[in-house]
Amino acid sequence: MATNKSRFSAKPQSSLTPWLGIAAIVILLDQLSKITITKLFTLGEEKVVTSFFNLVLAYNPGAAFSFLRDAGGWQRYFFTAIALGAAAYIIFLLKKHGGQRLFCWALALILGGAIGNVIDRLLYGHVIDFLDFHHKAFGHFPAFNLADSAICLGAGLFILDELRRVNR
To answer: Is 30 a catalytic residue?
Structure first.
């Protein structure tokens, strides 16, 4: 059996399974956290945790930082379509470059976060956010969730992977 090698790595391509497993764990943790927060909080209710962090139940019908929040509803389908297209492309990349561990970790985290938020859009028409960081000099940052955190962590790993590749 011949092994295919990625053009970026001398390692043979590996299975999609571990990467889809990571994405599934992100989705599971994201959905469990959102179910928990919606059971314990009413919309807008806050619980102070530290001097810079609250838990709050917020709904975001838009995208990051509530972009297009008041667009009339079409944005739900638009952002869902974008996320599903991105998910399909990420799965293609995971299959093609399965041997690149850091790159695939980044993609798996982004995939899990994107699908976590798609589930919210399809089930509720909005994304459930609940992590609220604030600072007296800057005020409250937009609330976010575990899916958003996974997407940001994945983006950071993607940048790190690219910087490492460029420096070789």
So the answer is: no
Active site residue 129: yes
Nearest-CA neighbor of 74 among 114, 111, 121?
Answer: 121
For residue 140, what pLDDT band results from cuts at 50, 70 and 90?
Answer: confident
Beta-carbon count within 10 A of 158 CB:
17
Indicate the pLDDT class of residue 46, thresholds 50, 70 and 90: very high
| Mutual angle of helices 101-124 and 74-96, in 10-degree steps | 160
CA-CA distance, 154 to 114, in Å (whole number)?
Answer: 11
Residue 95: the pLDDT is: 94
| Catalytic residue (one of 120, 129, 132, 161) | 129
Residue 154's contacts (CB-CB under 8 Å, 6 or more residues apart) are 105, 106, 107, 108, 109, 110, 111, 113
What is the pTM (predicted TM-score) of this model? 0.85
Of 30, 120, 132, 148, which is the active-site residue? 148
